[in-house]
Amino acid sequence: QVPLVESGGGLVQPGSSLRLSCAASGFPFQYYAIGWFRQAPGKEREAVSCIPNSDPSLYYADSVKGRFTISRDNDKNTAYLQMDSLKPEDTAVYFCAAQYSNYDRWDLANCKSSIDWHYWGQGTQVTVSS
Predict the structure, then answer these.
(1) Which of 114, 107, 122 is nearest to 43 (CA)?
(2) How much helix, strand and coil, in percent to the nearest 5, is found in the chain?
(3) Does the pLDDT of residue 103 top 90, yes or no?
(4) Are 105 and 94 in contact (CB under 8 A)?
């Protein structure tokens, strides 16, 4: 059983929108932070956005602030990344990941690194091109 499965990627024109989904199974989703990462060809994987399990604070990379919105539905064990005003530089494979965050010392700064995430999805391709 694959713990995380992404969906919703595709080929869109600049200025369009996409909503990515990350469906979780096999672990207590409600206790895990969910992060979205992306990796473009020839580049390192970078953090895009992150939502903790209960803290209302959210993380967004500067490059996507004001354009992307992360959310989660614990009843459905699913997280989402709404991507608006897409740009060609958003083209990448997008991954979701899960990190246990149900303890006091968990810090939103954990979202900035791809290290120490317990579960990863297989990725979904997002291509923004005219």
Answers:
(1) 114
(2) 10, 45, 45
(3) no
(4) no
